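Title: Prediction job returns without error message
Component: structure pipeline
Severity: low
Priority: P3
Assignee: unassigned

Description:
Job completed but the reporter wants confirmation the result is attached to the right record. Sequence as submitted:
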Amino acid sequence: MAMKPVVSRLEEEFGDRVEFRALNIDETSSKEAMAKYKFVGQPQFVVVAPNGEIVASRNGMQTYERLKADIEAALAKR
């Protein structure tokens, strides 16, 4: 996964405050979450605030800075 270094860096920085999940699109157990978060392609990053609000949903390769800003926006909604 080309995004692994970015996600790993975000996990290191926010792992004590944010839950990171990866879905396997081939697994039946992922279908409900994919529908809930309107999955449209790979990779897709969905940032959900603690109140359940979708703060950001981004498709394709993303920068560390963009995803970090999305996570910070979600944390601000606490």
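Comment from assignee: result matches the submitted record. The longest strand covers residues 54-59.
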